[in-house]
Amino acid sequence: MNINLKIWRQKSDHQDGGLRSYRLENIDPNISFLEMLDILNIKLVKEKKDPVAFDHDCREGICGSCGFMINGRPHGPQKATTVCQLHMRAFNNEDNILLEPFRAEAFPVIKDLSVDRKAFDRIISSGGYVAVDTGDVLEANSIPVTKEDADEAFLSSACIGCGACVAACKNSSAMLFTAAKVSHLALLPQGEKEGKERVVNMVATMDEEGFGACTNTGACSAECPKEIGQTNIARLNREFIKSKI
Amino acid sequence: MTDFNLFSKAPDGDLYTKWEDYKSSLKKLSPEEANKYKVIVIGTGLAGASASATLAEKGFNVHAFSFHESPRRAHSIAAQGGINAAKNYKSDGDSVMRLFYDTIKGGDFRSREDNVYRLAEISKNIIDQCVAQGVPFAREYGGLLDNRSFGGVQVSRTFYARGQTGQQLLLGAYSALSRQMEKKKVKFYSRHDMLDVVLVNGKAKGIVTRDLISGKISTHSADVVILATGGYSNVYYLSTNAMASNVTANWRAHRKGALFANPSFTQIHPTCIPVKNDFQSKLTLMSESLRNDGRVWVPKKKNDQRKAADIPEEERDYYLERIYPAFGNLVPRDVASRRAKEVCDEGRGVGPTGYAVYLDFQRAIEKKGEEFIREKYGNLFDMYQNITDENPYKTPMKIYPAVHYTMGGLWVDYNLMTTINGLFSIGESNFSDHGANRLGASALMQGLADGYFVVPHTTMDYLAKEKPLEKDITSFPEFIEAKKKTEEEISKLMKVDGSLAVDEVHRELGKIVWDKIGMARNRKGLKSALEEIPKVKQKFWSQISIPGDDKDVNQELEKALRIKDFIELAELMAYDALDRNESCGAHFREEYQTEENEAKRNDTDFKYVAAWKYSEEESPKLFKEELQYKNVKLKTRSYK
């Protein structure tokens, strides 16, 4: 298949960027989207041109490194799929494909399609943990957890921190990301004790980092490659109200 | 040249109480005293994050470095199947002794008894720790922890979180690390590559790094340096490792004097999605846990072009069940991989290339129901379907072995210290616990054992005997010299004005390493690898092209710095595989096999760890650590 790419090129956050066009021919529809970009980059290197910078690592949809906008959607057209798991068969011959970085004030552009998502780490640092030191713990089976709670906590904890939720949100809110961690720990007896402080601190950090407010449109969940549900946000709100009582 | 008398430093005494006795004999520092010391940790995967968090809790000032944006992106996150622990929750006769024995046997009697026993012992604490952090392991309806079976063992001791166990464990360690970052006990340097280790008076006292955003080369001094930088499977180009996983930190330490042990012990995982075309950038693993319910088979006939569904039961060869009736589909990884290669080489492989075998869930779906299979392996089935465009609930998966893990690594003693004083190595980056083959669900166990429960104690002991640095010493000539060398190397790379992308050279290297130092090796192939690799090296240094500026984000330069080291490592792997005139575990030398095509070990001549010293001018020099077996009897490994 042949494709026409338009890619956002920007040297750094301090410089202006713009779209540039590239055409690739005879692309095997069974290669992955990132392998298609590898082909483009090898071509650019051979022409002594600067290759397109993008983040990626595991290429198995779990490390959360990859992620950019494809035709206006985070991670592209396929539901519950990270860019690295997207294959060219999701597109048609002669398609125009537009690639842009995730855009949010809290995610400054590093270069081209690569953005800085360290704000997420700072949200976790402000309370996304159980305060236990190594070795200072109970025997594992002395803390029973019902299967339902463990499964539910797992689903929240499956977040890969890619930032698609922020990119999908018209307000660039990090609510789904924050709520997933708050939920994961609120659902488990281990996380219960620090629940009040956790939710207050994490929400405060989220605001300080420049993420916008949540207006419950649900775009975040719809675009989340791990299908983290809206119920997490409801749970965060409940935890937040509880902390005020 | 310094000579090494390789001695594990494991204390004498009873195996069963050795670690506890030793631990209590180690020197301690109070949190106030510890606060005077600075510790550098490279890598923040399971081993690095757990070590950094634990050392910070003990009062040390930790500076943690990663080439990733965030610690949560380290490749530990991709481990699927599970983590072993000798909890014996299933009352199926499991014990520390049994886990110890399974690991030694699985490693084909090429690992150290003392280290492996300690690992088995600590396994129980790891589960306690992770549960306390809120790791959502799979549970039974009664609320207690669930277990499953893995290859090479006959008990059920693997704890798991669906097919995302590595993710959940790493997020646990990352949360402990984040807590210490908030307390300012850990300073995290994101997007930094370590390019050299700096020695002052023979001791590791710092590092040289490149900031991957600004391109700036910096030096950092500390009282001790811990490497937790993972394995080197990417030397094969195609592997299940993440794209940027590399050997650079370890290789730079090796060049500075740290011995590299058993480099040719590399694990080929039997259940991966087969290579489909030339553009393939990486391979994807399908967790070994699938072999609990999946049955491996190929057609009995050669070149059988029929669809799987059209091949009747009696014309299928369930070869693992046939050859190994006791373990069946759950034989260890090296055995399963080799047998897959064998049936494909015979012409009985399936799929477009003929290099694949079936992993069939039909019987499990009939017996237990599709819902049961979905619950257990849903995300793996989805991943398979997404990549291959085939539905594994309806047709069997096609799988083939791929490089997955490296047992070899920096040589370390019982304290996990390398042959450089003050330089420690933990997790996959060291060679220590898996011998010639690692059992499934043991990598997570080792990473966390080293990071949470071993290295914090041994580092503290080392530091208690060292005077803390009074100030930053990066103005010392050793640092200035190391920084200069790094800058010179980069400018030399930038000046190579060829026409090849670095990836193209890497692919060429990978093919040589896979063909000649892969699943089966022989003397002739290894010798030709030693002739071909220097040619790749020459090509690299004369024909690559790195556009752009080194004082900027430059992903081609990042790759070039890594490939340069992979090329040198590949040569060492060939030397190591050539020296070991026996077959053991994953190291299968075709000249040394039994009549039934099983590995033929030679305990008289090769019961040693091969540790290699780097030399710029001549070939690497071999030092041997003789392995002592006092508690287990050396046996021929049998899974029949």
Tally of strands of chain B: 19
- The assembly state of the depicted protein chains is heterodimer
End-to-end Cα distance of chain A, whole Å, is: 60 Å
CATH superfamily of the largest domain in chain A: Alpha-helical ferredoxin
Structural class of chain A, please?
alpha+beta
Radius of gyration of chain A: 20 Å
Major protein interface: A-B, 78 and 84 residues
CATH top-level class of the domain at 269-403 in chain B: Alpha Beta
State the CATH architecture of the domain at 269-403 in chain B.
Alpha-Beta Complex
CATH topology of the domain at 269-403 in chain B: Flavocytochrome C3, Chain A, domain 1
Outline the fold blueprint.
The complex is a heterodimer of chains A (245) and B (640).
Chain A: E1 3-9, E2 18-24, H1 33-46, E3 69-70, E4 73-74, E5 95-100, E6 109-111, E7 114-115, H2 118-125, H3 147-157, H4 164-168, H5 175-186, H6 189-192, H7 195-208, H8 219-223, H9 231-244
Parallel strand pairs in A: 1-5
Antiparallel strand pairs in A: 1-2, 3-4, 3-5, 6-7
Helix pairs in contact in A: 2-7, 3-5, 5-7, 5-9, 7-9
Chain B: H1 18-25, H2 31-34, E1 38-42, H3 46-57, E2 61-65, E3 83-84, H4 96-106, H5 113-133, E4 158-159, H6 165-182, E5 186-189, E6 192-200, E7 203-211, E8 217-221, E9 224-227, H7 248-255, E10 260-261, E11 266-272, E12 295-299, E13 316-317, H8 319-323, H9 333-345, E14 357-360, H10 362-368, H11 370-388, E15 397-406, E16 409-410, E17 423-425, H12 443-464, H13 477-495, H14 502-516, H15 523-543, H16 555-579, H17 603-606, E18 608-613, E19 621-626
Parallel strand pairs in B: 1-2, 1-9, 2-5, 9-17
Antiparallel strand pairs in B: 3-4, 6-7, 7-8, 10-16, 10-18, 11-15, 12-13, 12-14, 14-15, 18-19
Brief descriptors of the model:
heterodimer; A: Ubiquitin-like (UB roll); Fumarate Reductase Iron-sulfur Protein, Chain B, domain 2; 2 domains; five-stranded mixed β-sheet; two-stranded antiparallel sheet; 9 helices; B: about 650 residues; alpha+beta; Flavocytochrome C3, Chain A, domain 1; Methane Monooxygenase Hydroxylase, Chain G, domain 1; five-stranded antiparallel β-sheet; 19 strands
